[in-house]
């Protein structure tokens, strides 16, 4: 068996979290984030295990998109911002937004959900650790996120409407899973990867559920596959304005869907 050769990032990650003396060949191709049970996201360390997807650096750009797509005159809106993080996984998106918006003194209520009960437990553990300062010193600007199991928006309160629904759902077309690296398919949960035949199965369902859940000018922010087109997203709901944004690698990666303010 060939010895595994670590990248500089992998060596640094293992050393940072006290795993520099392990025999890496005992772990096969397991990502170093699963070996350490840690991953850095937006400058904060989250705990993870194989029940959740490893947050990618591209998803940090989704946070910036969210912060740059808050409702107009955010500081003057008559209610707290209401945000849903659907398919939260380890909780990286929702927890990061709670902390960033609290630092900006923007009132916010955040709801975080996942279909996986195991993932919900990981998210709750991260929230307890990373939001401890908000718990010890309650902020008038940020309520502690509510974290619960839900198949997309099914278990959300019926009367709840959102300024922002943000989701990094499974979006890889099923047939392409066979061509992914074994370090992904052998270790990361298939539930968080497989987006159905065209990669849009869950995105399509969420958009259908979300239209009536959005406040005027409300937005849905999605991470998508680079093969997904503007046309495919537009035909899902013609009442929503759709934009596709590139990531730092110049590939289609994010979609912004906005509700007409008069709707």
Describe this entry's structure for a reader.
With 263 residues, the protein is an alpha/beta fold. It folds into two domains: 1-36, no CATH class; 50-259, Rossmann fold (3-Layer(aba) Sandwich), CATH 3.40.50. Helices cover 29% and strands 21% of the residues. The strands form two sheets. It has a seven-stranded mixed beta sheet with strand order 5-4-3-6-7-9-8, sandwiched between helices. It has a two-stranded antiparallel ribbon with strand order 1-2. Helix 3 packs across helix 4. The longest helix is centred in the middle third of the chain and has 14 residues, at 117-130. It is globular, with a radius of gyration of 19 Å. The mean pLDDT is 91.
What characteristics describe this protein?
single chain; 263 residues; alpha/beta; Rossmann fold; 7-stranded mixed beta sheet; two-stranded antiparallel sheet; 9 strands; 29% helix
């Amino acid at each position: 068996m060939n010895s595994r050769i670590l990248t500089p990032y992998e060596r640094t990650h293992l050393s940072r979290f006290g795993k520099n003396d392990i025999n890496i060949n005992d772990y096969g191709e397991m990502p170093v984030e699963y070996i350490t049970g840690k991953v850095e996201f937006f400058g904060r360390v989250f705990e993870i295990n194989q029940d959740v997807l490893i947050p990618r650096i591209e998803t940090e750009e989704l946070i910036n998109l969210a912060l740059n797509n808050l409702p107009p005159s955010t500081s003057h809106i008559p209610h707290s911002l209401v945000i849903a993080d659907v398919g939260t996984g380890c909780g990286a998106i929702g927890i990061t937004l709670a902390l960033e918006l609290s630092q900006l003194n923007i009132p916010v209520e955040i709801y975080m959900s996942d279909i996986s009960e195991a993932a919900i437990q990981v998210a709750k553990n991260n929230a307890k650790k990373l939001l401890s300062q908000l718990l010890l010193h309650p902020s008038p600007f940020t309520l502690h996120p509510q974290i619960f199991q839900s198949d997309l928006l099914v278990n959300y309160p019926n009367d709840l409407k959102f300024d922002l629904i943000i989701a990094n759902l499974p979006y890889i077309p099923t047939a392409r899973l066979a061509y992914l690296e074994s370090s992904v398919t052998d270790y990361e949960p298939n539930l968080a990867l497989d987006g159905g035949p065209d990669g849009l199965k869950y995105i399509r369902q969420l958009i259908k559920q979300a239209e009536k859940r959005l406040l005027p000018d409300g937005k849905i922010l999605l991470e998508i596959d680079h093969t997904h087109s503007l046309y495919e997203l537009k035909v899902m709901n013609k009442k929503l304005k759709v934009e596709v944004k590139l990531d730092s690698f110049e590939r289609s990666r994010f979609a912004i869907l906005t509700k007409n303010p008069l709707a």
